[in-house]
Design goal:
homodimer; mainly beta; Pnp Oxidase, Chain A; seven-stranded antiparallel β-sheet; three-stranded antiparallel β-sheet; 4 helices
Chain lengths: 191, 191
């Protein structure tokens, strides 16, 4: 195929939308963030990126910890709203219920089925972006999304969690249908 | 809702599947990776994570650069296969066509509509995981996914690119339907 060079632009889809929680000026604040990813399973490591001018980052720099709260498509209006206003101007803690996490300074958003408490282990500044590498200290998951088989806990499948994806054309998407299982697809190629 | 504590486990969905390219032992190698994310738009920054025991990482540590190649769901068998075998055992360069990028040591996977050349700017080691923070030096995009309006280039929408998502239950998914536009959803909440 004929490829065209576009320079140093970002064209990388899709991003899972999450709500990053931190305590700022004594109240729980949540920022809608798409710059968030798994960086390893064992150990459980994540990376998030925030603008240095934001409100949430103040609490993270202080506590060296934050929460990742994973919303569902049903919560899209709230997610979009929390991404369009700053905690500097709006007291977001008045709009949602929070529970303190086990780490000091980390609020968990009650309405999200999955809340992950994260402890910062590395930081990296790139111009005005502040990237935090963090380990997951504690995962809080709604009972409805956990099942137990032979003493082993199992998380619900992705479609049950129904997360929100965001793309650089400013559009939100749901997750689509399952299209294959790891290990089985490769067999088709070899065949 | 009643949440249960699961400890420091990873329960964070979904991950976009990409093929990370590097030159190792003189040949192009591609690793299927889900630990990859946007860490900022301007500047265009990404983060990826690789196991230190892998093959691809050798080329990245040497060149301090790599490519992110974004496959579509039609390429799932290849993606799954490249994730199930190591370049130590299989010469992946014999299975796909590559083109050299503009950065030394960075191969671009011809069959992928989007290839991003990335220059490493920071590294972070967490146990056996090696996290690379990198800036996008050059984006190569298939002409079919670029349109021009009033002299401005526009990337295709997410569904046209048709990327692959992966989840921790070892299942691949496609992207679902658009569910909203940034800024408009918030208005529903305020209303």
């Amino acid at each position: 195929m004929a490829k065209r060079r576009l320079g140093g632009v970002q064209c990388f889809y899709p991003a899972p939308m999450v709500l990053i929680g931190a305590m700022v000026e004594g109240r729980a604040n949540y920022a809608t963030v798409g710059d968030c990813a798994i960086m390893g399973i064992r150990p459980a490591v994540v990376a998030i990126s925030l603008g240095e001018a934001g409100f949430t980052i103040r609490g993270i720099l202080e506590a060296k910890a934050f929460s990742i709260n994973i919303p569902t498509t049903k919560q899209l209006p709230l997610v979009d709203y929390f991404g369009s206003v700053s905690g500097k101007d709006v007291d977001k803690s008045a709009l949602v219920e929070s529970t303190p996490g086990t780490l000091p300074g980390v609020p968990l958003l009650d309405a999200c089925a999955v809340s992950l408490e994260c402890r910062v282990i590395e930081e990296c500044v790139v111009e005005h972006r502040h990237i935090f590498i963090a380990e997951i200290a504690e995962a809080h998951v709604d009972e409805r999304f956990i099942s137990e088989t032979d003493g082993r806990l199992r998380m619900a499948a992705l479609r049950e969690l129904d997360p929100i994806l965001y793309t650089l054309d400013n559009t939100y998407h749901s997750v689509g249908k399952p299209i294959g299982t790891g290990g089985e697809e490769a067999a088709k190629l070899v065949a």
